[in-house]
Design brief:
Elements: E1 6-10, E2 22-26, H1 35-46, H2 53-59, H3 65-78, H4 83-91, H5 95-107, H6 123-133, H7 139-148, H8 154-168, H9 173-183, H10 187-200, H11 203-209, H12 215-227
Helix pairs in contact: 2-3, 3-5, 4-5, 5-6, 6-8, 7-8, 8-10, 9-10, 9-12, 10-12
Amino acid sequence: GPDGALYGADWVQGFPMTGKGRVFKVSDPVMSKTPLVLETKQLLAEGFSGRTPEDLIRLLEHADLRVRQGSQFALVSRGPPVLPLLENAVASGPLSRRLHALWALRQLGRPQAIVGLVQDPEPELRAQAVRVLGDLSGQGAVRVLTAMIEDPDLRVRGFAMTALGKAGRLRALEPALRFLRENGADPFLRHAAVMALVEGGDAGALMKAAVGRTSEERLGILLALRRLKATEIAGFLADPDP
């Protein structure tokens, strides 16, 4: 809650519903009077629509997620006039400000403004940048994302693979299979490649590509076919890998 307390709901005995319920509140009377809690409570009560763009940019650094998000959405509601401020905020400064500026630029439909962030030294910025680039189409996005599936950070690598599937569709087939070959032992990275293969949506192409592949590649294709509800999946009943 805005008072710094933690609230929980208990419906008593689960289902079927008993018609009873309880709300638990866990709080620290000392913490509830700290400057940060008092400031957060005031900011949430006042709202964000009446604040200047500069003030909203500053609040993207606030410790409380609700304040940061409220400021982000308020900036987005101002439209194109705040683009220079957001582009400046995403370029440097505290990580929270840069991330919320990046997400705001995505909401405003300006993913081109964050292409350069795929080379940023901060891994989380690279991760969020490639996620946004998945919403772009065209050879440029595919080229950038294909390079990013080799990123040294595994989280960036996984997001880049999923984004490449969205941006490239069938053009992601070979990169996804190579990704499975190199990263298929990691279930999270395998899932990223599976989702990229699903975006292509061509069960016939996946079955044709499965011939002569490694177990990691075939498993990724199998899981993609399952999501596509493709009857071709029956072909794997005779696979040499149990």
